[in-house]
Design goal:
This protein is α+β, with helices and mostly antiparallel strands. It has helices at about 15-50, 80-85, 95-115; strands at about 1-5, 10, 55-60, 65-75, 90. A hairpin with a 5-residue loop joins strand 1 and strand 2.
Amino acid sequence: MHWDTNNHPAMTDAELHALIQSADPNVHQVIADAALVLDLRGRQLSVLRNTYPGWDIDYQSDAFGRVWWTAELRRTLTLEMATAGVMRSVRQEDAIALASTLAWQSALLHNIALAEGRHTPRPPATPHDHRP
């Protein structure tokens, strides 16, 4: 029998090798599944950050292990924004729900900008606008 650095019984090299060999297929599947989840989350995070640059977007786990997608508005929240329904921060259970919430928040911000005259809507395109 081997002893670890804390003087507790430890596995021999042969026992450890046998354990790894028996767990090998399961370990590979767990690692592959985890990689897919992390890759998907990474891609979703990248898309959200590129689509909504006015927000600090991330995901995190709570004390119960649930993943929450969060977004914090980069601008200072004004009274007009709050009155229109814009929130300083939002939190959803998945990336798709967060994207939907941010789309709505962006529409509210756009409407405020239009009302303040900071953005003017483009006139509709006419057929002659598309000639070479």
